[in-house]
Design brief:
With about 140 residues, this protein is α+β, with helices and mostly antiparallel strands. The protein folds into two domains: about 80 residues, Arc Repressor Mutant, subunit A, CATH 1.10.10; about 55 residues, Dna Ligase, domain 1 (2-Layer Sandwich), CATH 3.30.1490. The chain is built from five helices and six strands; from the N terminus they run H-H-E-H-H-E-E-E-E-H-E. A three-stranded antiparallel sheet has the order 1-3-2. A three-stranded mixed sheet has the order 5-4-6, with no helix packed on it. One zinc ion binds next to loops.
Length: about 140
């Protein structure tokens, strides 16, 4: 997902483009996968942006409510990422070192979503699917 498209989307929804907001989007676009709020905060700090916890929380809430980013709670930690329709992916989560890696699998869930929407009158935005286990390093 292109960041300018996202900025335009925020503007179209009546959102202001503050520096903090733009940097969060930029960081998540570059990461192209899940990032915890703690990691996001440390990346922002490197850019000399030091929002306090409630500011960052409000910002993430705003972006989530506008469906610009998605929240995913894995093992009790909140992660955020920008959904990408073209490169839709899932995750491998290591239960020992908590490393998360991105995988693309063939899934027929997109077709299923249409059916689910119709049957349940539920407008689906996205789905998440995580596989839990032990990474190569942690299997020893
Ligand atoms: Zn991801
Ligand atoms: Zn591991
Ligand atoms: Zn999928």
């Amino acid at each position: 997902m292109n960041k300018d498209t996202i900025f335009q989307n925020i503007r179209n929804q009546g959102g202001r483009l503050t520096r903090l907001r733009k940097e969060i989007v930029q960081i998540l676009v570059e990461e192209d996968c899940l990032l915890s709020s703690a990691k996001l905060l440390s990346r922002l700090n490197k850019l000399n942006l030091t929002p306090n916890r409630s500011t960052i929380f409000r910002e993430l809430l705003f972006l989530t409510s506008k469906q610009i980013i998605l929240k995913n709670n894995i093992s009790g930690v909140d992660y955020y990422e920008i959904p990408c329709e073209q490169h839709h992916h899932h995750h491998l989560v290591c239960l020992k070192c908590h490393a998360i890696s991105k995988i693309e699998i063939e899934d027929q869930l997109a077709a299923q979503e249409k059916k689910i929407t119709k049957q349940n009158k539920f407008r689906i935005i996205n789905h998440s699917l995580e596989f839990y286990g032990y990474c190569r390093k942690c299997q020893i």
